[in-house]
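FAQ

Q: What does a record look like?
A: Structure on top, sequence underneath. For example:
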């Protein structure tokens, strides 16, 4: 009887079409309102008006927008079986020839993920720390020069070169040294991929499959240069293994592991899978880390007290050293970790998750047929001022207080909620495998700057706060930095 009553009284699931959402045009829906580089901010704004679960109409297709962290985390955990990355995005990645672990699904994803995750564990990073140390020395040379001459530093370009160099040395055992190159470096070709990916996955019609505009032709040239570089890396690694067959038993990096791994049936990763993953790693580690660092430097410069705390900690941890010399030293930089976490809470460089369900399901009483487009809005819950009045403020200490409160819960319930809602690296089985490396890079760069230089300016040319620009990752527009040597 009880069961029957509850079945009878259970409301029939709603359809997405029954939900509120921004009013749009017939047929086109909300398409004309969407501004590509601002979609994340638009979706966050609409969540404030229509609630955390609402309808978006992309042409004839209904999408569900979800801005509630608990719901998003549940979806992200239900992968790869329940949910996939958006197939339109996978298709664009595929035709660019850059499929790897990011775009793979099912069994192929499981195989690739194991290898990738093993290449970025804290113990692997510890073993190969000297490579990161060397890249950081080079970064310091460049910073020294800028400090001497008083020249402006194009922040993102410099940081992208650093992150590409670190990824290539760590994951492929190859020193690409973009840091010391003038123009035409690998990083400049990689730079073109995310904006075009963003443009094509949001296009209403895949025109480039039929006709190439000048921008598509220019992009093809950059993509070809990227593929040529990747092919060269793979060949170098093959030659290394041929010279030293012991590497097949004990690979020293991801590329060697991919070239020699066999699954339980003796199968190996295909040529395309290896190349796709090399490309994927270069892309996944570049913009994300560089933009996060750029945002963090900007926030630290505009919050001098927080910067002073970083400088004091770095001086104490590094002593006479000018850069962190081992992972223990970097590990002691808790204030930098708090600042990076706080910066990623406010400026997550991956503010949207593009997903679709593999099987019919229901979210908050809304029926979703298989293949429904779901947009996860990652930032809303982490900056919700109804949870903590200062949720929109940069206050790194909330991470320290909340961490200690987790052991002995006292006060700061708001901070704890904000922290739980912050998922800059995603969540679940597909959480970013590069997160330990990213945090290490952030500590290396921020500690090097804090130990050696005074920040004179980190800002835009006109002094206005940097605009957020979404081109797959969310970048600050036009940040430049000026430094001078510290007088110590
Ligand atoms: C601050 C820097 C970084 C941020 C904020 C970041 C963020 C993210 C996010 C949000 C995802 C999607 C996670 C999900 O679907 O749940 C992701 C996936 C991924 N990231 Fe990162 N990432 C960073 C650095 C890196 C680095 C340094 C690497 C490697 C060199 C890397 C490699 C990857 C890969 C391979 C995936 C796909 C994982 C999969 O689908 O299984 N990331 N990252």
């Amino acid at each position: 009887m009880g069961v029957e009553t509850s079945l009878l009284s259970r409301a029939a699931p709603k359809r997405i079409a029954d939900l509120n959402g921004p009013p749009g045009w017939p047929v086109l829906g909300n398409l004309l309102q969407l501004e590509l580089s601002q979609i994340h901010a638009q979706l966050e704004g609409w969540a404030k008006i229509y609630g955390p679960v609402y309808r978006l109409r992309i042409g004839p297709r209904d999408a569900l927008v979800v801005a509630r962290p608990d719901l998003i985390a549940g979806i992200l955990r239900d992968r790869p079986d329940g949910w996939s990355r958006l197939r339109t995005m996978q298709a664009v990645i595929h035709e660019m020839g850059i499929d790897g672990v990011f775009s793979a699904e099912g069994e192929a994803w499981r195989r690739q993920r194991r290898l990738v995750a093993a290449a970025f564990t804290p113990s692997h990073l510890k073993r190969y720390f000297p490579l990161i140390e060397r890249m950081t020395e080079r970064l310091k040379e460049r910073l020294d020069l800028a400090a001497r001459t008083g020249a402006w530093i194009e922040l993102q370009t410099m940081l992208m070169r650093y992150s590409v160099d670190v990824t290539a040395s760590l994951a492929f055992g190859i020193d690409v040294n973009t840091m010391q190159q003038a123009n035409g470096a690998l990083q400049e070709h990689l730079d073109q991929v995310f904006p075009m990916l963003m443009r094509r996955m949001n296009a209403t019609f895949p025109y480039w499959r039929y006709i190439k505009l000048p921008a598509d032709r220019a992009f093809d040239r950059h993509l070809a240069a990227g593929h040529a570089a990747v092919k060269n890396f793979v060949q170098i690694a093959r030659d290394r293994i041929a010279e030293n067959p012991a590497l097949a038993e004990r690979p020293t990096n991801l590329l060697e592991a991919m070239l020699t791994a066999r699954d339980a049936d003796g199968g190996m990763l295909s040529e395309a899978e290896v190349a796709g993953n090399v490309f994927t790693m270069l892309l996944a580690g570049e913009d994300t880390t560089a933009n996060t660092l750029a945002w963090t430097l900007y926030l630290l410069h505009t919050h001098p007290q927080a910067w002073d705390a970083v400088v004091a900690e770095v001086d104490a941890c590094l002593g006479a050293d000018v850069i962190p010399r081992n992972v223990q030293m970097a590990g002691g930089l808790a204030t930098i970790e708090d600042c990076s976490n706080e910066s990623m809470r406010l400026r997550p460089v991956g503010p949207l998750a593009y997903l679709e369900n593999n099987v019919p399901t229901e979210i908050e009483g809304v029926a979703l047929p298989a293949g429904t487009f779901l947009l996860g809005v990652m930032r809303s819950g982490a900056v919700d001022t109804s949870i903590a009045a200062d949720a929109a403020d940069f206050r790194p200490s909330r991470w320290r207080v909340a961490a200690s409160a987790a052991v002995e819960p006292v006060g700061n319930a708001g901070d704890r909620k904000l922290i739980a809602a912050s998922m800059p690296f995603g969540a679940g089985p597909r959480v970013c495998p590069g997160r330990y490396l990213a945090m290490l890079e952030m500590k290396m760069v921020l500690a090097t700057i804090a130990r050696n230089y005074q920040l004179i300016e980190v800002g835009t040319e006109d002094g206005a706060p940097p605009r957020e620009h979404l081109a797959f990752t969310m970048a600050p527009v036009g940040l430049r930095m000026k430094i001078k040597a510290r007088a110590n």
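Q: Is there anything notable about this one?
A: The chain is about 50% helix and 10% strand.
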